[in-house]
Design goal:
Layout (H helix, E strand, L loop, with lengths): L2 H7 L3 H41 L2 H12 L1 H12 L4 H18 L3 H19 L6 H41 L1 H17 L4 H8 L3 H21 L1 H13 L7 H6 L5 H17 L19 H16 L7 H29 L12
Helix pairs in contact: 2-3, 2-4, 2-9, 2-14, 4-5, 4-6, 5-6, 5-7, 6-7, 6-9, 7-8, 7-10, 8-9, 8-10, 8-13, 10-11, 10-13, 10-15, 13-15
Length: about 350
């Protein structure tokens, strides 16, 4: 046995648990969100453009892209798990059946079953002379058979949790507006995937609007309050990219996180109680914030869908005002004011939010 393999075998149990947790709960979920982005989300955007511009071919392309959500998620997860080629390509079938049978909670079913199938495929990969037959067979059969057994239950469980959150938000928009906005916003800044969480739970409606508000508060908030350190490059990187760039600075001084988080606790209930902001586009959009303006595009595509379904008559000026205030103006203004107070207290100092080049 090589020295490297010996070291791996004798790793402490809790170290192995931590590594697997990082791999499955962070790396795989983040990859799944990218797979969703490259299929369902971009397909929704292209399809919406096709509908609005009257270009049927764009609508068809969008539908094709959306139809590949399951395979795209599974292959992305396999990529994050460093699956060998035959395992990686075989996961497309696993993702397709898992997403289909999982229903509304399909993304969570794909996450769990793609991980299991990938690990089983890796166990047999390149172990026999018939690898080209054995590895795809084990990967596909294990993943799809488990999907038939488990995907409906996993999907139903995820849908139930998402439905409970949506129901609670409709019932208690003030309290849940705060909770959903703060929790999803913090998840966006942490090295976990808020987009994958929202997709797995099917977070739409008022709850989706609160999630969008929380994500925007984190991204726009950090972009604005760190402007003196990071200038225009930092403004774009955080405001249109991700506030996750601030994680190393949060570890050094957690107080820099106060301003955007308090801002999210304010904009969340404003979104649910005052502007009645709903995100009825693809659920993944609820956890994207201003990243590529995906959250706002999701809200808009939801308006279009609601009008087509007859549940909304038209997009009103108040809709646009609410969207602009919740997603851009209030996060910037509130975060800046709160952060000024923190600076006066000496809790935040120059350089605390400088991004590493």
């Amino acid at each position: 046995m090589s020295e490297t393999n010996s070291t791996q075998v004798h790793k402490p149990f809790w170290t192995l648990i931590k590594e697997r947790g990082q791999l499955y709960l962070i790396d795989a979920m983040s990859a799944m969100a990218q797979g969703l982005f490259a299929s369902l989300l971009i397909g929704t955007i292209i399809g919406t453009l096709g509908t609005q511009l009257g270009v049927p071919v764009l609508t068809e392309i969008g539908d094709f892209a959306k139809g590949m959500a399951g395979p795209a998620m599974a292959v992305a997860i396999g990529y994050a798990l460093k699956a060998p080629p035959l395992v990686l390509f075989s996961l497309a079938a696993v993702g397709s059946v898992s997403n289909s049978l999982g229903g509304e909670g399909g993304p969570l079913a794909v996450l769990i079953l793609a991980i299991v199938a990938a690990e089983l495929g890796k166990l047999v990969s390149k172990r026999t002379r018939l690898d080209i037959l054995v590895t795809p067979s084990v990967t596909i059969l294990s993943g799809t058979l488990l999907a038939y057994l488990c995907a409906p239950a996993i999907g139903a469980a995820a849908a139930s949790v998402g439905g409970l959150i949506r129901w609670a938000t409709d019932l208690q928009p003030l309290l849940m507006g705060i909770v959903v906005s703060v929790v999803v916003g913090m998840a966006l800044t942490l090295p976990i995937s808020s987009a994958a969480i929202c997709a797995a739970l099917g977070l739409t409606g008022l709850a989706g609007g609160a999630a969008v508000a929380g994500c925007c508060a984190q991204m726009v908030g950090f972009a604005v309050i760190s402007f003196r350190e990071n200038r225009w490059g930092g403004l774009a990187a955080q405001g249109l990219g991700t506030s996750m760039l601030q994680v190393p600075n949060i570890v050094r001084n957690p107080r820099i996180w106060i301003a955007p988080t308090v801002a999210s606790a304010i904009t969340g209930p404003l979104a649910t109680c005052v502007f009645h902001l709903q995100m009825n586009g693809a659920p993944i959009s609820s956890g994207m914030g201003t990243c590529g303006l995906v959250g706002q595009i999701g809200v808009y595509s939801g308006w279009v869908n609601d009008i087509a379904a007859g549940t909304k008559t038209a997009i009103t000026p108040m809709d646009w005002i609410g969207l602009l205030l919740i997603c851009f103006v209030l996060p910037a203004l509130l975060s800046w004011i709160i952060n000024m107070g923190l600076r006066k207290l000496g809790w935040v100092k120059d350089g605390d939010m400088a991004l590493e080049v």
